[in-house]
């Protein structure tokens, strides 16, 4: 059975469904075991995905000329940085950053005394 098939673990779903109160379980050890198993399978999937990503990159580098390979590596390094900057600008344009900052400051710490 592949790791992807084990992630959607039916016993975990049934344990969650049978809980009467969110966060509470009369079967604590069973839940812990199911969650540990789930975490291990997720880890395996991430390792497989990372290995696949590196294998593909190595094969691409072999196909490209040295200059093309350098340009590809620079572009791959630059892409996440550009996406991050673009998303920050978009958040500011949409007013999301101000909304999030307002919600964070209003929920953190003790309430301010009224004058």
Automatic annotation (TrEMBL):
Domain of life the protein comes from: Eukaryota
Any GO molecular function: sequence-specific DNA binding
Domain DOG1: 1-93
InterPro entries assigned: Seed_Dev/Stress_Resp_Reg, TGA_domain
GO biological process: DNA-templated transcription
Entry protein name: Transcription factor TGA like domain-containing protein
Protein species of origin: Helianthus annuus
Lineage: Eukaryota, Viridiplantae, Streptophyta, Embryophyta, Tracheophyta
